């Protein structure tokens, strides 16, 4: 079973924290939210501070700067860092990238775009779960974005693969159609509706499952609730 990637969110705006925490936890992340630089320094220097898979840092904090936290993190590990920054804060954004940040997201931002970019950073850095084995000889390498079945490559479209990642983020859990629609919504703006979801679930099943009556299902329909990835 894949682990839930751990995100350290450092942001002093309570409204932003509330929305981000909910969205990220629904997307399969484990979120530790802190509001000050002092709290973040304590978390990063704690014995388990190296356990974070990604740092999501506001540049402007009431008692310091996310830039200093990035420097501290870089002294200890190569954990991915993504900055939250004001649209007009170009100088600090450039400085943050020079310090080794992986990406920055300007406020105000769209939650789906933020989720997509965080997943992209984790995939590039190999921190989104590595290789996962599913029933039926299915192996998903999230670092390489490759899917194989009994050693043979399974070719998935971008939306099919995104749908599979949504299931992998919640193994064994029932996901509603609304949750899945949010996960596969194209950040580029392509419209994904309820009928489209039905088609993509059907296609994904056809590519992953054997189609035999005695073969174990990989994606199960839970009537009236949604779908579940069997693990």
Kindly list the characteristics that best describe this protein.
alpha/beta; Rossmann fold; 2 domains; 5-stranded parallel beta sheet; 4-stranded antiparallel beta sheet
Report on this model:
This protein is α/β, with parallel strands linked by helices and 231 residues long. 39% of the residues lie in helices and 23% in strands. It has 8 helices and 14 strands. The protein has helices at residues 14-26, 37-45, 66-76, 90-98, 111-125, 158-168, 177-184, 194-208, and strands at 6-10, 30-34, 54-58, 60-61, 64-65, 81-86, 103-107, 131-134, 138-141, 146-149, 152-153, 174-175, 219-222, 226-229. The longest helix has 15 residues, at 111-125. The termini are close together.
**Helix count, per DSSP?**
8
Choose one word for the global shape. Answer: elongated
Quaternary organisation of the protein chains: single chain
Structural class category:
alpha/beta
Q: Which strands sit side by side, in order, in the main sheet?
A: 2-1-3-6-7
According to CATH, the homologous superfamily of the largest domain is Response regulator
* Count of domains: 2
Radius of gyration: 19 Å
What is the level 1 CATH name of the largest domain? Alpha Beta
CATH architect. name of the largest domain: 3-Layer(aba) Sandwich
Task: Tell me about the largest β-sheet.
Answer: 5 strands, parallel
CA(first)-CA(last) distance: 7 Å
Order of helices and strands, N to C?
Answer: EHEHEEEHEHEHEEEEHEHHEE
Low-confidence stretches: none
Mean pLDDT: 81
Helix content: 25-40%
Number-wise, the strands total: 14
For this structure, the CATH topology of the largest domain is Rossmann fold
Strand content: 15-25%
